Amino acid sequence: MAAMKRSLLLPGSAFFLGLLFSCGRVSEAAGFFAGSKAPESLARAAAAFASETGADRAPASMLSIAHPPAVSVPYPGTPAAGALELKGFVSFWTQDCRNGCGLPKPATASLAVELRLPLPSTSGEASSASFGRKADLGPSSALMAKVTAFAICPRRTGQEGSTTRRDQTGSATSGESCPGRYFQVQVELSGAAEAFCAMSMDEHDLAPFPVLMCAGMSTSEPTTRLGVTLHRTAL
Question: Is the pTM of this model over 0.70?
Answer without folding.
Answer: no
